[in-house]
Amino acid sequence: MSQSPLDPKQLAFRNAMAHMSAAVNIITTDGEAGRCGITATAVCSVTDTPPTLMVCVNRNSAMNAVFKANGRLCVNVLSGEQEEAAKHFAGMTGVAMEERFALDPWTTGSEGLPVLEGALANLQGRIVESQEIGTHSVLLVELDDIHVREEGDSLVYFSRAFRRVERAA
C-alpha cells in the first residue's frame, strides 16, 4: 500500500512530536488470537483510581487486531539496557515475532501475558475501552498487576532516536 505525501500540517505535527521525549515501551499480549508485541511510545497515564493507561496502536498494524481480540496487554517500560529489544519489536531488525521473544528474558506474568524481565515497570491489564481516532486505535487499559523496579536507567525516544536517560544518583 503506498502512502500519500504528507501535507504541511501533518509534516509540522510529526516534526513537533519528534521534539517530545517519550518513554519507550514494549506492549505485549497473549491469548486465543496469539502472542505478539510492539514497541510504542504513545502510552500515558489516565488516572490512578482505578489505575488506567492509554495505549495508542496504529490501525494498520496486524498486531492491533490481536491486542483487541485478546483483550489484555502488558506495558513493559524499557530500561536503558533494552534498546536492542525495542528495535526488534519495532520491526527495525527483521527478526520474526516468535524469535523476538527468544532473544530476551521473558516470563509469563500473573495475567498470562509476556513480561520482560529487567524492565523498569511491567503493567498488566484489561482493555476496557477502544476508540478509533484517525490512523490509530486508542486503548484504555485498566491495570490488574503492577511491578516496578527501583533501579536502572530509562530508555526514551527523542529527535527520532533512542536515548538513554540516567537515573540521578
UniProtKB/TrEMBL annotation:
Segments forming domain Flavin reductase like: 17-164
Any GO MF annotation of the entry: FMN binding
Pfam families: Flavin_Reduct
Source taxonomy: Bacteria, Pseudomonadati, Pseudomonadota, Gammaproteobacteria, Pseudomonadales
Keyword Heme among UniProt keywords: no
Alphabetical UniProt keywords: Aromatic hydrocarbons catabolism, Flavoprotein, Monooxygenase, NAD, Oxidoreductase
Family stated for the protein in its record: Belongs to the non-flavoprotein flavin reductase family. HpaC subfamily.
Pathway assigned to this chain's UniProt record: Aromatic compound metabolism; 4-hydroxyphenylacetate degradation; pyruvate and succinate semialdehyde from 4-hydroxyphenylacetate: step 1/7
GO annotation, biological process: benzene-containing compound metabolic process; pyrimidine nucleobase catabolic process
Source organism (scientific name): Geopseudomonas guangdongensis
Gene3D superfamilies the UniProt entry points to: Electron Transport, Fmn-binding Protein, Chain A (2.30.110.10)
Protein name, entry field: 4-hydroxyphenylacetate 3-monooxygenase reductase component
PANTHER family xref list: FLAVIN REDUCTASE, FMN REDUCTASE (NADH) RUTF
